[in-house]
DNA helicase
Amino acid sequence: MRVPFRKLRNLAKTTEALVVSAWLTRQGHPPSRRLVLPEQLTASLALPEPAAAIDEGAWRAAETIEALEGLTFGEAIAPPSTIECFDISHFCGLQTVGASSAFDRGVLAPDRYGWYSLSDGPPDDPAAIARSVTQRLEETDPPDLFVLDGGIAQLNAATRAVAAAGASTRCISLAKREELIYGAGPTPLALPRHSPTLTLLRRLRDEAHAAALLAHRRARGRAGETTFASVLDEAPLDPDAKRSLRAAFTSAADLREAPIDALRDIIGDDAAAVQSWLAAPAATQQAENFDDLAALVVGKGGAVDAVAADGRRRASSAVVDAAAEAQARRWWQPRRALRLETADPIHLARLLEAASEGTGLDDALLSWTRPSHTEERPVVAASTPLPANQMMKRAGPAFEPTPGTFQMRSPYEPRGDQPTAIAHLVKGLGRGTPRVVLAGATGTGKTFVLAHAIEALSKPTLVLAPNKVLAAQLWSELHSLFPDNCVKFFCSHFDFYRPESYSRATDNYVEKRSATNSRIDALRHDATRSLLERRDTIVVATVSCIYGLGMPAEYVESAVPLQEGQPWASPAALADTIASLRYAPGSSDRGSYSLAENDGAVTLSVGLVVDDLRLDVRLVSDDTWTIESLALVGEDTSSTVDAYVLYPASHHAATPEEIERACDDIEIELVQELERHLAAGRWREAERLRRRVADDVAMLRAEGWCAGAENYARHLSGRAEHEAPATLIDYFPDDDWLLVVDEAHVAVPQLRGMHAGDRARKSSLVENGFRLKSALDNRPLTASEFWARVPQAVLATATPSEDVLDMCDRSPENVASLVVRPTGVVDPSVTVVNASKAGGLEDHLLAAVSNAEGRALVTCLTKRSAEALADFLTSHGIPAAWLHADLDSQKRLKVLDALRRGDLKAVVGCNLLREGLDLPQVSLVAIVGAEKRGYLRSATSLIQTIGRAARHVNGEVLLYTDDGFVSDSMREAIEETNRRRSIQLRYNEDNGVTPRGAAAAGGDANDALAELLGPSRGGPGGGGAMRELPVFEDPTDEALHVALREWRKATAAANRKRPFRVFPERTLQDLVAKKPTTTSELKEVWGLGPARLARHGDEVLAVVREYVVSR
């Protein structure tokens, strides 16, 4: 017989209360007055599910005890047994209410919640806190601790009220945005985000806030009924006068500040009465009766649940019971599998006995106590994943130092300036220096030096690059240097992304459009999994790592450990558990699962989101269903495993219970935002927002997801307003990891600018009723938030900017230099060319490229000039291609690979030919318009571009100017290049070094880069990913397809459309397959209706006929 889910939840709560109460009694607190029957709990241990629920309660008790111990803040005092939290709320300065939540011996105590009517005073939060505390101290015995929602002002007000009442209750306050705790010491205290103490304080604050919200709902009527409450509703005026005032004033604050003459002009002789009423609202407003609120909160077990219930329609008791059972089921579902595995009836019986008798409790609790970061723990080998139960029980990523985990493999030894730079970095970082700079000229082996530093320091490392191409190149290099360690890749998983935006000037709303690359999404999952399981992990990432990713603790806690012999109620129960991890039913493709029955056994196949593998779980039934075997199956391989941890298919893991809570919070915020819009007279914006949010909430409740769900990330993750989102950085250990920023002169400003751009776009959406204000919290980290999370960083660049040098305090001890190359290659010679005297730019450049020993790079100032110059070179017999931002990452790689192989002699581009590109075949760099002013021709940009020829023995750079003028930026770049060149020549002469060219990157490395950045294959779990271009066996078919795409591109440009708006890809492929030559045949092609036939039919037939005839 199935045990009701509500009973299981109650068993967990009762266990938690019993254990915490017994522990507090041992700390010197009086015995609990709440009745707990441990013998009933002990009797329940005979059944697996109740035993598992009791085990969940034991874990919760251990966490609560840790939280209460943290509230001593290191002082020799007993942990608090009773805690009350206060919050103040008012509506437009009126109807001020104080509310308090209560916590007693490990559980919320709804019967002790309090409400305090403060409507006869000004809307002053500290004063309201003091009055609430004073009223509370007049009622019953005070608690051990008061928690105030606010900062130092609220704390001081409450402390004075407690002293005036002659009480000894300790007070602390919790500030919302920074989550700083005041009163815990001489300075504000910032606890780690995963701290149980902070979690407990947040829970109490949420309860107090919800209690205050309930009071306002009573004062203003239920949200959603008729119209919104107004400060004028109770005013002594007739309806016409109220309407006149609402039309004249946009807010209650403006109304209160209005002079008497302005009021008299609007409502005549009633002005004096209204002004008096506004000045003394208590005389005209009745105090709220809070008895019904107390009954509601007690009945629902807390204010947060009461707010959710209060916002819904009344239902029959049967419906209410069914809803409560469903809620308990959603709570139990993600915990069930783990607790069935970890529950030990013998240990549980010992714990319950110790809690009942009051002896031996500390020893009995050891099985449920999380080890602290300073305790000794077994060292896990670098190549061995953490055991499933250990991974599941920790609150977040935490590692013990394991020296020597990184093992670098290279046939080369450090040479030139490299040994000195390595020693400088290791010494500085080893003594705890937070920021160091590696100033290395192009080709000096910065990556090689950084790899040695990573090996010596042996810390999890994040390598940040300014774009995908450079990130992929770094990944390839580090992967070859650390073949036995985890080198992972993390970048934006969108092939195409057009953000949501609105322009008020043109009243133009642009809906978000995106296409997800499932391959890169798999790499992102692989990176986070490695950070959670292994210490020897290097993650190479782009700036996308500062965007929200989902809490690592929730990601880990949602994971399901599977192992041979593990019991399950039924295959359907296992399938439900996997579905709760966001895997889609129906197939075994990536991110999906399917069930198949064979010979009495059931095989559940799960398409893993991390590897290109399928996990087959075979279940057999004797008396109960158990896992007989686990197998990882690839295209050509299959291997069995004893255990496997299945992570969620999405980093944004949320249980149904959390989604329901988020929906309630969204609806609460919607009420507040609608009031704000209506008060300002924005009726259209209010209605637009109401409809959109209502649709989104309905979809969230029905499907667990909705379009634009990321805009509700704050509510889904349970964050406070303005709190920073969880990002990839939160998957690293708190204070024991290393950041390496490559091309720091570009990446550091990039990090600084991301938040401002994101907020500017979303602010317009919020103000115009397209999004709730909480959408602003779906954002990247600010620069200050990012750097506050970074314990140590190496900023690598060939051209350190002022920002970069300031970050290391401009101390020579914090800057390591690399000038001499291990290959002996010196910086290229630089020549200024006066194009007008050289016979014209095109002719001189044509001759220079033709005579170049190696390949050539040419940089222009505009995309159009780059394309025109590439066409010019091609027309004169030089294989050339253009490269700029209009090419996606994969096509850029193909162009550069063609240059490396020699299929191209020259590549012409704009800004993409600067930082970090490893092109040792390039002997000539030509910079067109070198004297022009601007970012692309700054000294830093010129030095970086000159460096593209610094890997070739005979490197040469031509700076083309219109009239021979040498700008300050040119002069600075030339002087710096000549300075380095002289140092390198002197070193070679003193040490007998003969320059030799750098080794070219192999084809395997280039293939790996293309594989990393290639478009998604699509399929379930791919998020609507783009498809790869089709492969045609017949060259004529391929040529026709290319011709059709070129025609589509030109037609789209002429009509100012995107290409897919002209013809989708499927239509092009059907045209290639059917090759229509008549209008009637053309009508049979997929996607060609009358409108497209009339607009483009003749042109398409002309393209197809040309290739059919040639065939």
User: Anything to note?
Assistant: The CA atoms of residues 1077 and 1105 lie 6 Å apart. The first helix runs from residue 5 to 26. The mean pLDDT is 80. DSSP finds 39 helices and 34 strands in the chain.
